[in-house]
Amino acid sequence: MSRRFSPPLFFLFFLCSTPLILTQLNDDPTIKTMHDFSGYPLHDPSNPFKSSDSISNSLSVDAQTLQKQIDELSTFSDAPAPSVTRILYTKNDVLARRYIKNLMGLAGLSVREDAVGNIFGRWDGYEPALTAVATGSHIDAIPYSGKYDGVVGVLGAIEAINALKRSGFKPKRSLEIILFTSEEPTRFGIGCLGSRLLAGAETLAEALKMMVDGQNISFLEAARSAGYARDEDDLSSVFLKKDSYSAFVELHIEQGPILEKEGISIGIVTNIAAPASVKVDFEGNGGHAGGVLMPERNDAGLAAAELTLAVEKHVMDSGSIDTVGTVGILELHPGAINSIPSKAHLKIDVRDIDEDRRNAVIEKIHNSAKLIAKKRKVTLSVFKIINQDPPAQSENSIIKAMEAASKELNLTRKYMVSRAYHDSLFMARISPMGMIFIPCYKGYSHKPEEYASPQDIENGVKVLALTLAKLSLS
Ligand code: GLV
Ligand code: MN
Ligand code: MN
């Protein structure tokens, strides 16, 4: 639906602003109270909005404008359409952030940014002293990816707030949208950088003082070029206190095929799988591709190739479909056809819903790396676990709110595990957490073919809006 103002809503809003008529309406048994639509008791008997009609019926999402915004945001990209590449603190990232801040302002939110560029847009509730309910996601995009990953949870959140405002809803707890900095690990190798810091990652805050990207640009220099971390090397100002929010809910495309295959509209995430990433370097002597005979070689590239196959084997041997492993980066030095690789660099991504099983796989990969290095007479100069995060669980009360919201909207739903990681994984450390998934075409993600239909996005935004409304009143 693309209605901005519906006559009945406008009429209702007018009535709500007239206390005398409101008192009369409150006596009318045909009018539903906020309690009716929220499912939660009202604590404030003088709430002027308690005579609103059922919000699930009056929510109108402007799917057309939202799609236009998704398309516009995708133009801030370092890759030609339909690919999107948007890397932390680059010019396009800064422009895209400006685009979002502008929309937050237009939605009437008060906007603030922290030292690493997490952006917060707040709609004050009528009891602003209560802890707020938060939602949000990311807008950075890995090289040659699509335009929906993360974006649906940011632009969709702004539209959810707009829809709630249009419906006449007034939040009790404040509602806050968060745009998280660098959910993707592309530039500095750390996924969920912004949300990790919000959750109080002290070792990361310390490490960022010295961290450099592939071009040897330091994190702080890059952040400053984007207007952040101006006068501070100490990023601990980003940390949020535990329980800063009463709830955090993220809307995201599924990034898997299940919802589409089963024809289900809404995924209610119960758990987020535990991600880990490992950096490996092998070093050999290199040499001339013609001159050095095969028995004389110590080829770092072959060691990397053998370890790549070992990753696949150990993952498959775990015996569970939930264990996955990927060698997403494999770089050879000097990278010439007629030169035996003297250095090989790999980054390995291993995930599982079972943390111990994932850790056992990493241990086996480490042993293989040592054996391969010995056999091929190369040096295993680096085997570094970059991150080894525990899984996260959604909070029961938020699962219930998401479920009730999708039921009231007559949307089919299914409990599911998130195999991708999300900022929610880290928000769960400081707040009760929940996630809403929507279907995406063939489960495609992290590639240009990524697609979610306007109808599925509209459904997700409605469920998000109604869930936020419920949580705001709880
Ligand atoms: C997030 O983008 C992930 O890799 O799961
Ligand atoms: Mn992603
Ligand atoms: Mn994402």
Automatic annotation (TrEMBL):
Gene3D superfamilies: 3.30.70.360, Zn peptidases. SUPFAM superfamilies: Bacterial exopeptidase dimerisation domain, Zn-dependent exopeptidases. The keyword Manganese applies. Residues 1-23 form the signal peptide. Its cofactor is Mn(2+). InterPro entries: Amidase_Cbmase (IPR010158), Bact_exopeptidase_dim_dom (IPR036264), Peptidase_M20 (IPR002933), Peptidase_M20_dimer (IPR011650). Residues 276-371 form the Peptidase M20 dimerisation domain. Keywords: Hydrolase, Manganese, Metal-binding, Purine metabolism, Signal. Pfam families: M20_dimer, Peptidase_M20. Homodimer. NCBIfam families: hydantase (TIGR01879). PANTHER family: ALLANTOATE DEIMINASE-RELATED (PTHR32494:SF19). This is Peptidase M20 dimerisation domain-containing protein. It comes from Hibiscus sabdariffa (roselle).
